[in-house]
Amino acid sequence: MNDRYMAEALSLANEAAADGEVPVGAVIVRNSDGMIVGRGRNRREKARSSLAHAEIEAIDEASRTLGGWRLTGCTMYVTLAPCPMCSGACANARLDKVIYGAPDTGRQPVCVSEGGCMSDECAGILKAFFAERRQNMNSISLVEAVTDDQLRRIADIANEIWHEYFPGIISTEQVDFMVKKFCSFDAMKENIAGENYIYYFIKHDGKDIGYTAVKPDGRRLFLSKIYLKKEERGKKYARAVIDIHKNYCREHGFEGIWLTVNKHNDSSIAAYKAMGFELCGEGVTGIGGGYVMDDFFYELKIR
Question: If we measure between CA atoms, which residue out of 257, 224, 244 comes closest to residue 141?
Answer without folding.
Answer: 244
